[in-house]
């Protein structure tokens, strides 16, 4: 086990998070058992400090599988803000814990550290990792999805009044969400069992009580190879796939009263062999992404796809649930089925109502919304069944785009919102 020394005080306004060489150990535990030598933070909940920290995170490139520097930066900031316990677990999640002086439930705030890639680079007006502050916004890859929310969660945790906190607050900075929604959060929840979960994905400062899930299916048609100079001598698997695609487009999508409509999208198609040289393709493989609604099951969806292939008269077509093959920056190898369930929490649930009350006490006017994209809530709520809500700055439309940005005002409001969700929920339950 590797221990880190306490973080030394640094002047406000400086970039205080710097990447450092990661130790070979898979578990880094940084325990702050006493506060006698700790340096009190002068900038907890300070607006400029939150801006500086968000910018520091954005400057650290953390495209999927490269979250190491961000994890260490997060640990440093949690230590500066006097979290009671800080650790990096075996798969690379950074976890910080704030313990109230009174017993009570545990609420987990989760935000992921990884980002999607920067393509095309030459289309960006703002350098993707410069974290430029301009026109009331922070610009750069990951600012909206979701380093801004992560920074706000950490600063909210650092601003909690432990004397009036009946319970425990955990902030997890998770890895690999863009590939393995929920798998990394599962590791966190196995180590630190929460009673409630807050997902920090963008919600435009509304409270989210439901979310669509996601599944990927591969479909492979089979033909007969022949020389491309004599295509009639073979059976072109791509032509068979074209018929399959036509039938797939006819599959009706289910509706949900609150979440809306499920979707299915063709995301990839490739001939087999690829590249082909003067040969009629003997195979063709497509990938379909299905956005799930509550109650949908793998077997039923697969049966729909199989029936569509039958209508296309494409014999021997194979339909399978796709698998994720992913390795974290610590070396942990994940092989996971790409099935991430949808979820919903009743409007009258304690977490929803106390969450709304906390946000209103922070001066916000939240509506009730649903995530149309898939989040780590697919595991916490969809699989584990732990009451989960979503709340975060920015919007879904600002994620994964050229010139990604987050509005600084939303960043401040999110920080107040996270703090007030925690204090309202944990204080009121205790009373």
Describe the model.
It is built from nine helices and 22 strands. The chain has 431 residues and is α+β, with helices and mostly antiparallel strands. It folds into two domains: 28-211 and 342-430, Zn peptidases (Aminopeptidase, 3-Layer(aba) Sandwich); 215-333, Alpha-Beta Plaits, CATH 3.30.70.360. The protein has a seven-stranded mixed sheet, sandwiched between helices. Strand 11 and strand 12 (260-261) form a beta hairpin. Helix 1 (47-59) packs across helix 3, helix 3 crosses helix 9 and helix 5 (237-248) crosses helix 6.
Give the topology, please.
Blueprint: E1 28-31, H1 47-59, H2 68-80, E2 85-88, E3 94-99, E4 102-112, E5 132-134, E6 137-139, H3 143-158, E7 166-174, H4 183-191, E8 196-199, E9 207-211, E10 213-222, H5 237-248, E11 255-256, E12 260-261, E13 263-272, E14 283-292, H6 298-311, E15 318-321, E16 323-327, E17 333-337, E18 339-340, E19 343-344, H7 350-361, E20 368-371, H8 377-380, E21 388-390, E22 405-407, H9 408-430
Parallel strand pairs: 4-7, 4-8, 8-21, 9-20
Antiparallel strand pairs: 1-2, 2-3, 3-7, 5-6, 6-22, 9-19, 10-14, 10-15, 10-18, 11-12, 13-14, 16-17
Helix pairs in contact: 1-3, 3-9, 5-6, 7-9
């Amino acid at each position: 086990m590797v221990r880190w020394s306490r973080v030394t005080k640094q002047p406000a306004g400086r970039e205080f998070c710097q990447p450092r060489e990661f130790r070979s150990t898979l578990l880094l535990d940084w325990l702050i058992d006493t506060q006698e030598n700790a340096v009190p933070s002068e900038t907890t909940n300070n607006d400029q400090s939150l801006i500086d920290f968000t910018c520091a995170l954005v400057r650290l490139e953390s495209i999927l599988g490269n979250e190491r520097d961000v994890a260490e930066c997060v640990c440093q900031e949690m230590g500066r803000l006097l979290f009671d316990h800080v650790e990096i677990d075996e798969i690379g999640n950074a976890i910080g814990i704030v313990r109230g002086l009174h017993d009570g439930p545990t609420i987990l705030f989760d935000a992921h550290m990884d980002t999607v890639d920067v393509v095309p680079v030459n289309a960006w007006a703002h350098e993707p990792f410069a974290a430029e502050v301009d026109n009331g916004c922070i610009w750069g890859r990951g600012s909206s999805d979701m380093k801004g929310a992560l920074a706000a969660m950490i600063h909210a945790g650092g601003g909690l009044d432990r004397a009036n906190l009946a319970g425990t607050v955990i902030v997890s900075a998770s890895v690999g969400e863009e590939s393995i929604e929920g798998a990394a959060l599962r590791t966190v929840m196995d180590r630190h069992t929460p009673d409630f979960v807050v997902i920090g994905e963008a919600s435009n400062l509304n409270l989210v009580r439901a979310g669509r899930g996601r599944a990927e299916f591969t479909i492979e048609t089979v033909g007969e190879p022949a020389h491309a100079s004599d295509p009639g001598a073979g059976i072109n698997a791509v032509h068979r796939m074209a018929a399959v695609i036509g039938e797939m487009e006819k599959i009706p999508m289910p509706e949900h009263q609150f979440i809306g409509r499920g979707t299915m999208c063709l995301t990839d198609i490739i001939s087999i062999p690829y590249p082909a040289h003067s040969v009629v393709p003997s195979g063709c493989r497509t990938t379909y992404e299905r956005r799930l609604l509550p109650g949908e099951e793998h077997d039923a969806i697969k049966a729909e796809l199989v029936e569509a292939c039958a209508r296309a008269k494409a014999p021997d077509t194979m339909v399978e649930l796709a698998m994720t093959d992913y390795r974290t920056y610590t070396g942990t190898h994940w092989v996971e089925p790409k099935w991430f369930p949808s979820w919903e929490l009743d409007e009258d649930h304690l977490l929803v109502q106390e969450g709304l009350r906390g946000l209103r006490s922070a001066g916000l006017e939240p509506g009730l919304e649903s995530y149309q994209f898939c989040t780590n809530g697919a595991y916490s709520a969809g699989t584990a069944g732990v009451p989960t809500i979503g709340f975060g700055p920015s919007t879904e439309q600002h994620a994964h785009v050229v010139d990604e940005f987050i509005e600084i005002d939303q960043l401040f409001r999110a920080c107040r919102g996270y703090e007030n969700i925690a204090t309202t929920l944990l204080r009121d339950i205790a009373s």
